[in-house]
Amino acid sequence: MCQPSFDGYIAERDRAENFNMNETESVLQSTPRSQVAALNLELEQQSQDQVAQLQRSLELAQVLRQVTDQMRRTLDSKTVLTTIVQEVQTLLHTDRGVMYQFGQAWLGEVVVEAVRAPWHSLLGKQHQDDCFAAEHGQQYLEGRVRAIANVMLSDLTPCHKALLQTMQVQANLVVPIRIGNNLWGLLIAHECNAPRVWQPFELDLLQQLADQAAIALHQAELYEQSCVATLTARAQTRALQRTTIELTQTLQRLQQTQSQLVQTEKLSSLGQLVAGVAHEINNPLSFIQGNLAHVAALRKGVLSTTSNGDSSQAMS
């Protein structure tokens, strides 16, 4: 956004102050007093107009600087928009300043307002403007501005006039608030007390403030997107951390289960080995146990035979 340049105003003022005095005296000497008085009045009026124009430009520059500084200090768009609407009401000396935001199907709502008593407030009220057809929205998106000096004498449709009458509006000044290729809404000055002829500088002032509002809204939108992205990234990081912990715990449980399975397998193998060894030991033991009776009988027979032999020898 370019700040207003005052070189043209200052140069014009200097030219008025450095008017060639000789030429002035020559004109005055050859001009009737009535014409001289008229010329003096005209020059005085021109000087006053130039001073007023310079004063307005200085006021606009101060407001733009204030808004810009506020935008640097805060990303709260509501604060900046409130300041802009208040300055609209102050600089234009109008009864009401509003920001009108569009929703779906051109359902509009007054989201920011500055209003003087006794005119009623429109803040928070929604309006379904059936007269605001899609083509009008396209015109505002393309940069259309509108200055209506007298609502009742304007070329507005009857339903639009009726809507403005419910808002107590007799004259209004409307400029678009555009963000990229979207029409966010309108910055509007309402004159409720009486009709009013708007000046070109007032329209220019309102448009520059609308442009500042668009910048503030865009910055707030980018900041919100950044916050959402940050929160999403944090949530994803926390989810990843939880998943990592769960996977670690699962891995630990799997390792414990695996260790238990290995131990069980070892015990099972040892049991099978012991069973095999016991089986191998039981086979000869069974053989031995099965033949112990025969061995005992043989032993008894041998002992008996030996005893009989000894007896025979002793008798002979």
* Structural Rg: 52 Å
N-to-C terminal Cα separation, in Å? 155 Å
CATH architecture assignment of the largest domain: 2-Layer Sandwich
CATH topology of the largest domain: Beta-Lactamase
Order of helices and strands: HHHHEEEHEHEEH
What share of residues are in beta strands? Answer: 5-15%
Number of domains: 2
So what's the overall shape? rod-shaped
Low-confidence stretches: 1-6
Q: What's the β-strand tally? A: 6
Q: How would you write the strand order of the largest sheet?
A: 3-2-1-6-5-4
Level-1 CATH class name of the largest domain: Alpha Beta
Query: Helix share of residues?
Result: 55-70%
Structural class: alpha+beta
For the sheet with most strands, the description reads: 6 strands, antiparallel
Brief summary of the model shown:
With 316 residues, the protein is of the alpha+beta class. Helices cover 66% and strands 13% of the residues. The chain folds into two domains: 73 residues; 174 residues, Beta-Lactamase (2-Layer Sandwich), CATH 3.30.450.40.
Structure description:
With 316 residues, this protein is an alpha+beta fold. The chain folds into 2 domains: 1-73; 77-250, GAF domain (Beta-Lactamase). The chain contains 7 helices and 6 strands; from the N terminus they run H-H-H-H-E-E-E-H-E-H-E-E-H. A 6-stranded antiparallel sheet has the order 3-2-1-6-5-4. Strand 1 and strand 2 (107-115) form a beta hairpin. Helix 3 runs parallel beside helix 7 (200-315) and helix 4 (77-92) runs antiparallel to helix 7 (200-315). The protein is rod-shaped.
